Amino acid sequence: MRGLPGLIHHPGNRREELAMLSDILVYGLMNGAVYAMLAIGFSLIFGAARIINLAHTAFFMLAAYAIFYFGSELAINPFIAIPLSIILVVLVGVVVYYVFMEPIREHETAVLIVTVAVALVFQELILIIFGGHYRGVSSIVAGYISPYGIRISYQYLLTLGVVSLSLFIVWLILMKTRLGIAIRSSAQDREIANLMGMNVAKIAAATMAISVGLAAVAGVMVAPLYTLEPHMWLNPLVLVLAIVILGGLGSIKGSFIGALILAFIEVTVVFLIPGGAFLKVAIALAIMLTILIIRPEGLFGVYMEGER
Amino acid sequence: MAVIRMAFRYVRNEIFVLPTRVIAVLFVILLILLPLLTQDMYILRILAIAAIFSIYAASWDLLSGFVGQVSFGHALFFGVAAYTTALLNLRLGLSPVITIPLGAFAAVLVGLLVGIPCLRLKGPYLGLATLAFPIMLMGIIFVFPGFFGGELGISGITRLASSRLTEYYIAVVCMLVLCFIMWKITDSKIGIIFHAIREDEIAVRASGINTIKYKLLAFCLSGFFAGLAGGLYTHFLRIAGPSMLAVLMSFQAIIWAIFGGIVTIYGAVVGVFILYPTLEILRATAEYRMLIFALIVLLVLRVMPQGITTFTRDKLERECPRCKVRNTVTRKNCRVCSSDMR
Questions:
Q1: Per-domain boundaries in chain A
Q2: What is the pTM of this model?
Q3: DSSP state of B66
């Protein structure tokens, strides 16, 4: 993809400028919401179990392919197919956690490689089952609205709604329930949480379920908007890592704001700079690095000088 | 005569006493004598590439295993050296003897450039920030396809040597020498400081050691060795492409080193010499290749999370509780201080 033809900047053409501005807004908000879902999930599991889960976006891909299989191949009603896909992916996530991560959690580097290997397994399984072709999923809801001449499809609105709703639910869980308090306390200090009688392994598994669940919801919702292919986990992964670092590791608020910042930067670069498709990730990362050099703990991270 | 007797005694007392040392010596001898057994081009090629990647993986271990500055963007050094080497060779027509060290020098400069802003970062922040650099460089390479060759990369580079056998020996000897140097570095006073920085940086600083200097030194050293590997690889394959900067290239170094066992240097070599040929053998299974590869990594790490060399070493040898010298598990008394091993 070399830029987007027809969307190249032509100064003086007010109509096109407006269209582009609205496109930036819509795509930026959309990508921001998806990245926020992914980044918050990533942040949660890092906080609660100190696992850098590089397979996180692979679960996102798995969910997208699950909805492709159930919704498009088997033609199951979306209202059954969506929950089915999400539950399936969450189950896979928890099983992976219990079988491969929990027993070797002491060896942090090994866990890191295990997550890469898990992602590769998913990628290869999808490649074998579905092939390397680009796949599309039909929208759950068709049609679009056009306020002020801006075209917004219902799928975008639905996605935004679902993303906001699930983020709200996660916030409720984290802030108002016993599980949420346990997750937050084990994120602050695992050992002390354990001494207070919490089963940190179980908390980590629950966090893994929530984290993978968020990725799955994102995957299911954006499947109709993205092109599915077995390598689709790599690019979002890089961005999610950048977002999480930008916002501050383990900070939910930071992940959310970081996601919006990087999504808008990415979309703006694609629309405004010729050849931006090649540079979008590079520029997003350069901005992340700049912020990181000024604030080594990220925007909302807590930096503990003496943390061991 | 006396020299021979001394050498014999050294071999008997220092090498034959420990199974892992015997394995290491056998491995080196086998690598050097292999062309006597087979002159198969394909086998020599695989082993030469494995040797080059060993340098690369060991350089990751030097920076991330020893100093604890976990880098997710090690392909940066590899790729910068590869492109520098390729451009110098193609545009200026310099020979590999000059281009490879210059490429490594470029990687050292890049190591400094990356190291300075990263000094303030720690742990996962550092790792994920370093991930960004090769991706940014890749963006630049795609923007100037005329100079950097874009997606296809730069091809038409001089061969490392005229025959495959010579190339094999260059790769293997470079690997043995460079890995030995890296191992000696980690065994020296600098190496002890590297260890200490990983374990407790504040304590090291409190002991009056300039940790910034040593961390930058680690970045430069690691960049230098990774750069040499990158240059060798470029001249061996006769192409420098954007895949050398890809995220997967960075992860490969990490997979090899961790699979073999980190904080050892030799673990990285073992990791590459097991995993790289495995991946080549798995070509026979066509589309299941990467799947089987990933499953092997997954299962091996599940059983031996500390890495394959550390796991085997701990199974074959035990540390004497009194003098901290390693002994075979079968011994009842320590071979140096003869204290009870149980």
A1: 14-294
A2: 0.88
A3: I
